[in-house]
Design brief:
Layout lengths: L7 E4 L5 E5 L5 E3 L3 E5 L4 E2 L6 E2 L4 E5 L4 E2 L4 E2 L5 E25 L2 E10 L8 E11 L5 E13 L7 E8 L1
Antiparallel strand pairs: 1-2, 2-3, 4-7, 4-14, 5-13, 6-13, 8-9, 10-11, 10-12, 10-13, 10-14
Length: 167
């Protein structure tokens, strides 16, 4: 008895491939994922919310991250897992925070470190959130520090990442 091997793809109405079934029968969806980093330090004013710029893409599988605006704006509606790290490494302060902004407005708080004495220095915060984006929504990341004057850049410090987990 001979076996038939068939590789197939499914396309949406726009003609782009939505998923592929490979020769082993595995379904390979088109991934929506991005990773962006700060390539250099960014100045901040103490006690002021500052939009964080992530000017270098490590990858962007669907082209939904824009380095010139530092926005993630997927055109596919669904639930997205977003993560971010911010490295506050210049100045001595007593509070560092991060926030996710959705469509230009404060949406959810992320990292929050607060000390009653001013001795926070070289601190990295991690933010993780699951949210629904409707296909026109966009998100950005903001940072805040009391006594903090900059965010560190480089692949091992400040990052902004996300991926689609379901529709």
């Amino acid at each position: 008895m001979s076996s038939i091997l068939k590789v197939d793809t499914i396309q949406n109405t726009g003609g782009t491939t939505g998923l592929t079934i490979d020769s082993n029968g595995f379904v390979l969806p088109k991934a929506v994922a991005f990773s962006a980093i700060k390539s250099s330090a960014q100045s901040m004013t103490s006690a002021t919310w500052t939009k964080v710029t992530f000017e270098t893409e490590e990858f962007d599988t669907a082209g939904f991250y824009n380095t010139s605006t530092s926005r993630f704006q997927p055109t596919i509606a669904g639930y997205y897992h977003i993560t971010a790290t911010l490295a506050f490494m210049s100045g001595v302060g007593n509070a560092t925070l991060s926030r996710i902004y959705k469509n230009g407005s404060w949406f959810k708080n992320g990292t929050y470190h607060y000390m009653t004495q001013s001795h926070l220095d070289d601190i990295m915060g991690y933010t993780s959130i699951l949210l629904y984006l409707n296909g026109t929504d966009y998100i950005e990341l903001y940072g805040f520090g009391i006594g903090i004057t900059s965010l560190s850049g480089g692949t091992e410090y400040s990052t902004f990442q996300g991926h689609l987990v379901g529709v």
